[in-house]
Amino acid sequence: MTTLWGGRFNAKLDEQAFTLNASLAFDKQLAQQDVKGSVAWADALTQAGVLTQTESKQIISGLEGIAVEFESRSFNFDASDEDIHSAVERRLGELIGPLAGKLHTGRSRNDQVATDFRLWMLDALPVLDVAIKGFQSSLVTVAEPHRFTLMPGYTHLQRAQPVTLAHWLLSHFWALQRDRDRLADLRDRVAILPLGCGALAGTAFPVDRESLTKALGFDAPAPNSLDAVSDRDFAAEYLFCTAMIGVHLSKLAENVILFTTAEFGFFELSDAFSTGSSLMPQKKNPDIFELARGKAGTLIGLLVGLLSTLKGLPSTYDKDLQEDKMPVFQSTDTLMAILPVLAGALETMTVNKKRMLAAIDSFTLATDLADYLVRKGVPFREAHGIVGKAVLLAAEKGASLEKLTLNEWQALGSFDADVYQVFDPMKSVEQRNSIGGTSPLSVEKQIQKANFLIQGD
Ligand code: ARG
Q: Could you report the per-residue pLDDT of 9-24, keeping only the tens digit for each?
């Protein structure tokens, strides 16, 4: 078993210690990024006069061969490969001989792995963005025909005021839009190049880190080598973003789970996106949404796990940092798996408009009754008290508010016969017409804004 660092050792590494130390099982996902970084490094060494043009050509064509092997999945990993960097260097040696040994001049796996990981994330961010955008676009598609579909809106999970289903669906769109903004903002901090920082102190060869930055598509070279090889803020931030997305999806999921219960009966999931029980023949379960809710917990755990790893680490690179990649890969895979399935489930579910309308009782219009009095010149605080009395009276009679007689209304305050017109939930919704309100007109404008944000690719 040959390692990249065997020189100062007499005996070989214990087999189980090797297995514990090895990261190939997961960092092989960085294969293409590792080759890309090495090609750029070979160029930088050539410009620095470390490699001749001929050597450079040979090294680069060897690396390109390796890239093709990765692409075609014909690359053979060896039991001695400790990580992806060792695997690529070993293979390069097999392809071009001892010249391969010149590539690692002035470089360490510390700046190399940080570079590979950032390159991976620069590739992953747009892919994740497209997946979130796809989900947002499903929300808009489902919302569009429901601008006039009424449902109770809730606070404290108690019926509060009527809203439209489109408005409720779009509320989840905006949370995800903030997630996309956060990921876009994160890109700037990912695009800082560690390569050329060596193990920790910088490189002793005259490498032009500015042109290396351009060659690899980064924005700027990291300004401090000690910080560069140990900075994993970008990974922690990424995990915050994925955890936040998980939290947002879990909120939507919890609502859908509630709304599909017999007690609510607002939604019914299609067969393609629900599951049955092995025992109870009647069951139709929202497993997909429960998994989304459950995986939010896992996503949060991945963030907390990495933060705990980073806490109190002495500068600079420590092997603890090898723990950074798995949570990032896992959180990405989790979201890429959940998002399209939830979208499919939402797009194919049946909406029971009757049940939703029936759940809007007269008490959800109590605010509209107070507004009615306000329009007649009653100060809001007073109007609130008067309507509160009406609610109490109706509750005592075990009746809905609209069943109170005109005499009863007039005894309470300055109500006229037109008070009964308030008991139209559509009117209530239509009045909430300012920006961000639930009226069909406001929601129409909201949909236009939403569509603008999901246009393109
Ligand atoms: N596999 C290592 C990681 O993921 C690569 C860096 C190893 N550096 C070292 N000094 N042993 O962090």
A: 888 899 999 999 999 9
* Furthest C-alpha separation in the chain: 101
| Whether CATH 3.40.50.720 fits 110-358 | no
212-241: per-residue pLDDT in tens?
A: 999 999 999 999 999 999 999 999 999 999
Do 62 and 153 touch, CB atoms closer than 8 A? no
* Annotation marks residue 277 as catalytic: yes
Q: Quick: pLDDT tens for 400-429.
A: 999 999 999 999 999 999 999 999 999 999
- Average confidence score pLDDT of the chain: 97
CATH code for the domain defined by 18-105: 1.10.275.10
Domain segments of the chain as ranges: 18-105, 110-358, 362-423
CATH of 362-423, one of 1.10.40.30, 1.10.10.10, 3.50.50.60, 3.60.20.10: 1.10.40.30
Catalytic residue among 104, 108, 138, 156: 156
Residues composing the chain: 457
Q: What dihedral do alpha carbons 367, 368, 369, 371 form, nearest 10°?
A: 90
* Active-site residue, selected from the candidate residues 61, 277, 308, 315: 277
